[in-house]
Amino acid sequence: MNAPFRFTTCRAGSEPALKRDIAAHFSGELTPAFMKPQFITWKLRHPDFVPPGSLSHFARVSGISIGLCKSVPELVEQARQCAGRRPVRLHVFPRVTDEDGVPAADWQRVDALTADISRALQQAGVLLETRLPFATGDLVLDVIVGETADEPLFLGCHQHQPGMHTQPGGLPRITLPEDVPSRAWLKLEQALAWRGWDKMDARGHTTVDLGCAPGGATYAMLQRGMNVLGIDTGEMDPRVDKLAQEKRARFEHWRAPVGRVHLDDLPQDIALLLCDINLSPPQVIPEIRRIQSAVQARRMILTLKLNSPALEDRAHEFIEAIRSFAPQPVFATQLAGNRREICVTAG
């Protein structure tokens, strides 16, 4: 259905980048209609314009806007009309989220509401799909929960496509532990969950981690039993070496700039290439390309720093540059744990 409104959710602070991105790439066909923190709806200027399912890499979730519902029965009636005879997946998630993860108490509230909505949908004859994996074209009902109990529920829907999040709201239930070296741990775990790579047995495989210090992403890979070559001029947290010993995994730290690494010294048969270097994409992407030409990693998880509006507005250019040399397919999103950056995965 080509409904007249679309919706998007995003990280706190990315609303301006999201608005600029959609304005630039849809030539005014979508205009902002309603805004709250981390949430924007859009009006289609022309009824015959059909936007893609995913509106922007700055939007964690986007889809058709059905509207606000003051009660569960009202929501169920709207959802029933939307679904027709099709089975649907139900995603209920909070609108406002913290960059370090949604607190357990908030998920408890959401889970209780999810159970209520699920029962009501089934009583109304709506078939709920729960089988994994997701299939292209699966219809997903998006129920967005406000900050207070008296705020109406928002109902939208989208059709699942490759590269879209399978966790409600793009919010994997991962929070930043206190005992890891850095936030890079959280971003990496969220990236793995987004692509479904968290389910793979990575034991014994090798990762090259560019910009590894102080060691959050390296720590996450060692926890999974991977061997890691980290390249960074900075110091590593001593917990990294300790964990490597406990896991009986190989960990090397080359304390040098990535640009000075000799390609002939790099290991072969690399399962995963990571990069989270605190430099701009025009500086980092050529180095990623150079390293990848030598190691031919089967998969990549890259964090691109977009610390200015000018860099945010060039995100599509950077993604296409990566697509030119990376294993396919290439997807990009702004993870829940990202700040002014996006995550690009390949393979």
TrEMBL record:
One of its GO terms (biological process) is methylation. GO terms for molecular function: methyltransferase activity. Keywords: Methyltransferase, Transferase. It holds the Pfam family FtsJ. The keyword Transferase applies. Gene3D superfamilies: Vaccinia Virus protein VP39. Its EC number is 2.1.1.186. Residues 182-292 form the Ribosomal RNA methyltransferase FtsJ domain. The keyword Electron transport does not apply. InterPro entries: RNA_MeTrfase_FtsJ_dom (IPR002877), SAM-dependent_MTases_sf (IPR029063). PANTHER family: RIBOSOMAL RNA LARGE SUBUNIT METHYLTRANSFERASE M, RIBOSOMAL RNA METHYLTRANSFERASE FTSJ DOMAIN-CONTAINING PROTEIN. This is 23S rRNA (Cytidine2498-2'-O)-methyltransferase. It comes from Prosthecobacter vanneervenii. The lineage of its organism: Bacteria, Pseudomonadati, Verrucomicrobiota, Verrucomicrobiia, Verrucomicrobiales.
